[in-house]
Amino acid sequence: MFIKVPKGTQDILPEDTPKWYYIKNIIREILTKYGYQEIRTPSFEYTELFVRGIGESTDIVTKEMFTFPDRKGRSLTLRPEGTAPVVRAYLENKMDRSSQVVKLFYIGPMFRCEKPQAGRFRQFNQFGIEVIGTKSPVVDVEVIIAALEIYKKLGLKNLEILINSVGCKRCRAIYVQKLKEFIKDKKDFLCSECVNRYEKNPLRILDCKKDNCQKIIKTAPIITDYLCQECKQHFKEVKSYLNDLKIKYYVEPRLVRGLDYYTKTSFEIVSGELGAQNAIGGGGRYDDLVEELGGKPTPAVGFAAGIERMIIVMNQQKIGWPKNKGLDIFVAKVSERNKNIAFKLLQKIRNAGLSADMDYSAKSLKSQMRIAHKIGAKYTMIIGEEEISKNMVTLRNMKTKEQKEVEVDNLINELEKGSLG
Ligand code: HAM
């Protein structure tokens, strides 16, 4: 029996890689336009970073991390998300000394040991953006707009923006107290996980999808009623900028998201096409994280999106993308005796910047033509016994089936001229 890919992971096969290039190019193009610079952090970090960054009692930290010791026994974790690593890199590389706001983006694999289902994987790819060093609500909106522009350029339709404010440390503490008071005499009706959450992280109860918990949550007090003046003003300004830009959004006062670092704005972009895992992206402000990870108090805001989920929606909405370019030339030889000449010409074509390939086994000309056709070569260059003795080869346009003899020394010229159309 052959070995399969680990549960929750998948191969991206050659027919699909052009899709990934295409999407990543659009992400890079648009984010560069918005002034973001790309950062690449390692795929694993010391576990402590995520425990401190994401929050000890979150589902990600308690249940979903791939954690293992290194050879000296230090605990490492495959990154479940990109924000804590970016903040770590920001501090470690002294980007905090910059007088400018730091605007970074990343594209890469993340790892969460979740129960796999449609749109939920154990290794998945995110593109993410982080703006560190400003508390301006305009930036919260810029982050949303940049994400929307990427989705739009890719052709994604029918996306909804859900937005909330989870307040700051001070006003959230008052709200959490109110929430606990409200739930106290209903605790017996909560699921076992929420009973646990009630003690450790009551805000997380709002995120529970179980029916009984949902019933209780529906009538629970909402956080936006408890925001302090500063948080209230910030939220008002974010909504007002969105209104000015005519960006439709829904205020969802029970949106808390699965990471503990959020303050003030938190938002999700959802698609009806994704079923239960409907978030195509999410983000928000995290004004305390830099300090929690050892830096000076520094406000920040960011967003991340799941690329696999974007592809699922693109497939469902039947959105196309540029196909693989295909090979320029397939080199075919009539006789094995000419394989050295064929190989030399193959290299000559490649050195001229064209893509070319040949068959390295002793296949018949007919089989070689079949391969050329299958891989979508534009031309086949046929090296025949007689022609090559005259320093000539035959070029065949695979689409029009037109053929022409050309001099080897003139080959590149002819190809560049596109003499066969
Ligand atoms: P998140 O909501 O945990 O936020 O993940 C962002 C997006 O990653 C989700 O909306 C979803 O599209 C995708 N995603 C998450 N888990 C999976 C999975 N198991 N399989 C497939 N896709 C998944 C964050 O990660 C934050 N770091 C976002 C952020 C950046 N906040 C501030 N800055």
CATH homologous superfamily caption of the largest domain: Bira Bifunctional Protein, Domain 2
Q: Tell me the span between the first and last alpha carbons.
A: 49 Å
Computed CA radius of gyration, to the nearest angstrom: 28 Å
The count of DSSP E runs of length 2 or more, i.e. the number of strands, is 16
* CATH fold label of the largest domain: BirA Bifunctional Protein, domain 2
The biggest sheet, with number of strands, parallel, antiparallel or mixed sense and barrel status, is: 8 strands, mixed
Number of structural units classed as domains: 2
The general outline is: elongated
Q: What is the strand arrangement across the widest sheet? A: 1-5-6-11-10-9-7-8
Strand composition percent: 15-25%
Query: Segments where pLDDT lies below 50 for 5+ residues?
Result: none
Q: List cofactors, ions and other ligands.
A: histidyl-adenosine monophosphate
Structural class: alpha+beta
**Which range best describes the helical content: under 10%, 10-25%, 25-40%, 40-55%, 55-70% or over 70%?**
25-40%
Could you report the average pLDDT, rounded to the nearest whole number?
A: 94
In the CATH scheme, the class of the largest domain would be: Alpha Beta
Description:
- With 421 residues, the protein is an alpha+beta fold.
- It folds into two domains: 241 residues, BirA Bifunctional Protein, domain 2 (2-Layer Sandwich), CATH 3.30.930.10; 85 residues, Anticodon-binding domain (Rossmann fold, 3-Layer(aba) Sandwich), CATH 3.40.50.800.
- It is 37% helix and 21% strand.
- It has 15 helices and 16 strands.
- The strands form three sheets. It has an eight-stranded mixed β-sheet with strand order 1-5-6-11-10-9-7-8, sandwiched between helices. Strands 13-12-14-15-16 form a five-stranded mixed β-sheet, with helices on both faces.
- β3 and β4 form a beta hairpin.
- α1 packs antiparallel against α5, α2 packs across α4 and α5 runs parallel beside α9.
- The longest helix has 18 residues.
- The two termini are 49 Å apart.
- The relative contact order is 0.11.
- The mean pLDDT is 94.
- The structure holds histidyl-adenosine monophosphate.
- The site of histidyl-adenosine monophosphate has 29 residues, from β6, β10, β11 and α11.
